[in-house]
Amino acid sequence: MGEAVGGEVNATLLPKVRGKLTPDAPLAPLVWFKSGGTAEWLFEPADVEDLAEFLRDLDPAVPVMALGLGSNLIVRDGGVPGVVVRLGKAFAKVQAEGQTLTCGGGASGILVSSTARDAGIAGVEFLRSIPGTVGGFVRMNGGAYGRETKDILVECDVVLRSGERVTLPVAALGYTYRHSELPEGAIVVSATFRGEPGEPSAIQAEMDRIAAAREASQPLRSKTGGSTFKNPEGEKAWALVDAAGCRGLMRGGAQVSEKHTNFLINTGDATSADIEGLGDEVRARVKAASGVELEWEIQRVGVFADNANRDRVGVVK
Fold it and tell me: Contact at 8 Å (CB) between 201 and 149?
């Protein structure tokens, strides 16, 4: 059994695994912002059983966090304590049958939508435009272009922090805008989506339309994290940011995108503190200008590099 000793996970007491366990693993290469510290341990499980057994035998005091494509994430410069779980190829398969898609938690939105196209399944084209994995879509009710994960999800299979495997129907997830009631520490290992019959050529045309719209409006070729703030009720976050005079605003190596003001970008050498600090400054300016308090859509995880903030640990929603 793993044991947390003095705030660190004792390597000799970690559960045995068939997958890969890496200490002090750099996370910056794995996230879109290309910034941030290391994972105390990075676990890439061989399969669902490997993950379930590891979590079952790991000291319950050790924090565990799932990492997908790293698109909607700021990893703080002090790194992430405990274990970061990254689902690899064993979790990236997608199968179609009728109008149903069975998708591994590590499958990308592009793979899901292209598999659906080939099988003549319409209604999931919007996943083509979301840079993430099925696990992230399910957790955050990912959506774009008028559709959300809740519109297509039938059920998902998760491994709880205890190691127990359970199947949750969509009704159990308490979906709201960019939020679910998925149990704390649960890792989505697969999901079942349902679409409707469609012609592959028409599905491809819709995917092309979405891709072109995204290319035209978003800084896709920059080191970014996707949409930074949730859209407030009846408002657009980008418009509020723009009206507050934040277009192009910089802090260190971080900048508010001039192409789309709800995107922050790493211009080259930004720290995660630069990026998160810029986001907080934008929130303050929007609050002062419009009275609206923007909520983060991007997750911020881990600990700050400076000792003064070491007590601020974990996932901030």
Answer: no
Report residue 32 as tokens. Answer: 């879109």
131 — pLDDT class (breaks 50, 70, 90): confident
The one catalytic residue in 44, 125, 276, 297 is 297
Q: For residues 137 and 128, is the Cβ–Cβ distance under 8 A?
A: no
190 is catalytic: no
Per-residue model confidence as pLDDT tens digits over 41-85: 999 999 999 999 999 999 999 999 999 999 999 999 999 999 999
Q: Find the farthest-apart pair of alpha carbons in the chain and give their distance in angstroms, rounded.
A: 59
- Is 297 assigned a catalytic role? yes
Set 108, 113, 114, 227: catalytic member? 227
Active-site residue 178, yes or no? Answer: yes
Catalytic residue among 76, 128, 139, 178: 178
pLDDT on residue 317: 33
Whether the CB-CB separation of 140 and 178 falls below 8 Å is answered with yes
Question: What would the pLDDT profile of 265-305 be if each residue is shown by its tens digit?
Answer: 999 999 999 999 999 999 999 999 999 999 999 999 999 99
- Predicted TM-score (pTM) of the model is 0.90
* Cα 247–chain centre separation: 25
CA dihedral 50, 56, 59, 63 (to 10 degrees): 70
Residue type (1 letter), 294? L
Nearest 5°: CA angle at 294, between 270 and 314?
Answer: 60
pLDDT for res 67? 95
